[in-house]
Amino acid sequence: METLSLLLDGFAIALTWQNLLWALVGVTLGTIVGILPGIGPALTVALLLPVTFGRDPIGSFIMFAGIYYGGMYGGSTTAILLNTPGESASIITALEGNIMARQGRGGAALATAAIGSFVAGTLATIGLTFVAPAMVQLALRFGPADYFALMVLAFTTVTSLLGSSLVRGLTSLFFGMALGLVGIDLQTGQARYTLGMLEMLDGIDVVIVAIGLFAVGEALYVASQRHTGAADVIAVKDSIWMTKEDWRRSWKPWIRGGLLGFPLGALPAGGAEIPTFLSYTLERRLSRHKEEFGKGAIEGVAGPEAANNAAAAGVLVPLLTLGLPTSATAAIMLAAFQQFGLQPGPLLFENRPDLVWGMIASLYIGNAMLLVLNLPLVGLWVRLLSIPAPLLYGGILVFATLGTYSLNNSLVDVATLLVIGVVGFLMRRYDIPVAPAVIGLILGPLAEQQLRRALAISQGDYSIFVTRPISATLLAIALVALVGPMLARFIGARRKRGEAAA
Amino acid sequence: MSTTTPMTGTNGAPDGPAPAPAGRGRAPGPSGTRPTPAWLHPDLLLAIGVLALAVFFFVGALQIRVSPAYEHIGPRFFPFLVSTGLAACGLGLLAGALRRAGVADGPAAPAAPGEPAPLADWRSVAITVAALLAQILLLERAGFIISSTILFAGVAWAFGSRRHGRDVVIGFILAFVVYWSFTQWLGLRLPAGILRPVLVWLGGS
After folding, report:
1. How many angstroms separate the CA of residue A240 from the nearest CA in chain B?
2. Contact, A159 vs A173, CB < 8 A?
3. Which residues of A117-132 are buried (b: 16+ CB within 10 A; e: fewer)?
4. Among A67, A352, B69, B104, which one is least packed by beta carbons within 10 Å?
5. How close B129 gets to chain A, by Cα (Å)?
6. Cβ of residue B143 closer than 8 Å to a chain A Cβ
């Protein structure tokens, strides 16, 4: 029951009025950026890093966690009322929720999404509370070879899950890792790829890359596409208080979504997309109203939205216990830890229990705040959707350049931002996912460090990666994750060809 | 607003998990309107770019100085690994592009990943880039408030706004409020530029 007393200590920290205020600021900002198209939680945390520099890390991380959770709630509002998901994990919500809204059931869809997010988010936060200490015990046994194998696993799963094809995800990942090579080699002090520029010695800041790819690249892409149809905001006509029937049909999907989302999010496999798809499929199979799916079934909103939030909480498990980010927002949170001179992992639980448990406790509080913010006040948030695109993107780019400039008060950074932004635009245009690049940039240098440490320990013997049980297991799973889908596709194609020939 | 997914940019997954949702990807453009010849698959350009990047990082790795004390796991090792990975990706994209180019006239071709959406508004992109360049050139010379006002109004213009006066006013108010709150309350330093006398007179610094 040591965990419970640590959690209580965490609540004592999170319930001080300053930290409650940080949590409120965080969830409010998170809701806003989740609703606004073109800006998400990863970008928001990146933009806020200069402001939090030199401040109390506990308050800052409570705010970041609030932004992270709030982004998930806000994303569903946009998905339901606009049918353009604010973030990728809301795609399924857009599918069923938007149809409900068109039928005049937008209020019920928003309510089941918000309450489901609360139920599943709370379940998953309880999961985080008890799984994290166990993971820490496991992580203590990890050597450099095991960490390297874990990162290889994260690389393969993240890239094979994000984006439309494996080779595109890997291209993005390697591009990010290549950017991560720029600067001074930490082990030997050699300059790499600096092109003789002093500014490059410190490397390319992951925050600039994230702002460049997510804000500038996205804005350029939207600018290039701005003549392709505009979506209408659907007005909410019905009450946001669900009927008895709605409750009866929603509560099981909420719980199932939560139970599905948390473990899948906690695996080093990245993101909330897969659990939402799985939850949708599961609910359709279990539902007594199968015919309503695709025509506005409330279960199809309740389940995936719950899974989405639970997975988001799950992503915090590998981030906090292993320092392993598996989503773009988690990668930026890792950068935030590094800015404060902190390294997530077992030692963080040991050295800064106040920070870790204060942050976990604030997640319970943030979830409750979000329920209040998102149900009665939803009418207020909906108005954000009527901000015209020219003003929205003008504002986003002002904040993007402001955030980048204030990192080091350097115009070279802003110029780098523009270059990265153009690259991000080309990536979007040629259908290369950008999230693996951000993850590769932040994990690449860490992977190199662990690889070289492991090989130094083994004196250059590569068999260290397959003789250690943890490392061998992780690498084997990585291989399956990499080769499995290819093999399945190959067999599928052969079968199809066989049928065609027959 | 036609934004899709800022988090990952997942565009149309032909072999993604079960239900292929309507909102997932952009609608595939009509294949007949593409002006490019069939053999020039967009992935071809992409593959060449990725391969060029791989060569750049490989050649760069050769130029990293290695002290003789280090054996095989020095500062060159990982760069070689990454550039090889990039090269493999480039070859993979190339193979895919060539394979699909052969069947580009078939009905399945437009659904392939990597098809840039047909309509590209290059003028809007150019104006947005120019507005960002103006921000870089003017931020320290004219000051944050003026350069950000220009950036805001420029981007609004690029995104189709024709009410330039309104955009300049909104941009100026936004830039002023941001400047004031960030420098006065959040402890950041931003260039005051040519408005310094006015800002000092207002009590700022």
Report:
1. 24
2. yes
3. bbbbbbbbbbbbbebb
4. B69
5. 8
6. no
Q: Does the pLDDT at position A37 exceed 70?
A: yes
Is the confidence at residue B140, as pLDDT, over 60? yes
Closest residue of chain A to B182, computed from CA coordinates: A51
Burial class of residue B172, CB neighbours in 10 A (0-12, 13-18, 19+)? middle
Provide the ipTM.
Answer: 0.84
Q: Does B188 touch chain A (CB under 8 A)?
A: yes
Chain B interface, best mutation among A187, A192, A451, by max B CB count within 10 A: A192
B152 neighbourhood in chain A, CB within 8 Å: 394-395, 397-398
Mapped onto helix, strand or coil, the DSSP state of residue A192 is strand
Q: Is the pLDDT of residue B2 over 50?
A: no
A172 closest CA partner among A375, A392, A432: A432
- Give the pLDDT confidence score for residue A229 in this predicted structure: 54
In eight-state DSSP terms, residue A288 is S
Beta strands in B56-170 (DSSP E): none
The tokens describing A368, both together, are: 């409750």
More confident residue, A364 or A81: A364
Q: Where are the beta strands (DSSP E) in A185-318?
A: 191-192
Beta-sheet strands, E only, within A164-250: 183-184, 191-192
Q: Is the pLDDT of residue A41 over 50?
A: yes
Domain carrying residue A425: 2-501
Check if the beta carbon of residue A72 is closer than 8 Å to that of residue A308: yes
pLDDT range class, residue B14, cuts 50, 70, 90: very low
Mean pLDDT over residues A77-92, rounded?
72
Give the tokens for residue B136: 């870089």
- pLDDT band at residue A19 under the 50/70/90 scheme: very high
Most confident of A239-253, A383-397, B104-118, B133-147: B133-147
Q: Quote the radius of gyration of chain B (alpha carbons, Å).
A: 25
CB nearest to A167's CB, from B2, B96, B122: B96
- For the four alpha carbons of A29, A34, A35 and A39, in that order, the dihedral sign comes to positive
DSSP label at B26? P
Q: Which of A36, A174, A278 to mutate to test the interface with B (most CBs of B within 10 A)?
A: A174
Q: Which tokens hold the place of A147?
A: 């960490």
Are the beta carbons of A38 and A219 closer than 8 angstroms?
Answer: yes
- Residue A187 has a pLDDT of 77
- Compute CA A337 distance to the chain's CA centroid, rounded to the nearest angstrom: 16
Residue A124 in this model has a pLDDT that exceeds 90: yes
Check whether A63 has a pLDDT greater than 80: yes
Of the candidates B46, B75, B115, the beta carbon closest to that of A192 is on B75
Residue keyed to tokens 């870089």:
B136
Six-digit token pair at B76? 């060159």
* Cβ B132 vs Cβ A397: under 8 Å: yes
Q: Going by C-beta distance under 8 Å and a sequence separation of 6 or more, which residues neighbour residue A7?
A: A129, A357, A360, A361
Tell me the nearest-neighbour CA distance from A395 into chain B, angstroms: 6
Which of helix, strand or coil describes residue A184?
strand
Provide the token pair at B114: 């990597």
pLDDT of B153 higher than 90: yes
What tokens appear for A191 in the block?
A: 């300059």
Burial class (CB in 10 A: 0-12, 13-18, 19+), B1: buried
Rounded average pLDDT over A478-496? 77
Which of B:108-127 have CB within 8 Å of A? 113-117, 119-122, 124-125, 127
Give the pLDDT band (50/70/90) at residue B112.
very low
Q: How many domains does chain A have?
A: 1
Helices (H) and strands (E) in chain B, counts: 6, 0
Q: Which residue has the tokens 């706004």?
A: B161
pLDDT at B5: 36
Report the SS3 class of residue B187.
coil
